[in-house]
Amino acid sequence: MKSSTGKCGPAGGDTLAERIKRVIRRIPRGRVASYGQIAALSGHPRAARTVVWILHSSSGKARLPWHRVINSRGTISLRPGCGCEEQRARLTAEGVGFDSAGRVDLRRHGWRP
What we know:
Blueprint: H1 16-26, E1 33-34, H2 35-41, H3 48-58, E2 69-70, H4 84-93, H5 106-109
Parallel strand pairs: 1-2
Helix pairs in contact: 2-3
C-alpha cells in the first residue's frame, strides 16, 4: 500500500525502523534508554528485539547513538570483547556512572522524554 508520500508502508511512509531510529536519535547525552522503552516510544511495546536488530544492522551508517541504549536492568548487554568496553567508555565520557556491579542508576541517568 502506498502512502501519500509515495512510499510503501503506513500512512506517511513512517516505518517501524524509521520510528525506532528517530527515538534513538532523541536520547540526550548523559542519558540512557532501554530497548523496551525505545520500542514502546516507537509505538510497538513488544518490539525490543527489533530495536536490537536495528542497532546491530544500522547504527554505524545511520549514525545512531547506540551506546545510550542498555537493557532494562541498567546493564550493558554487549559481551566483553564485543563492544561492551567501548559502550561503557562512551557512557562514562558523557557522565553516566556505573555502580560496582556494572549497573547504571536509571533514576539518575534514565531518559524520560
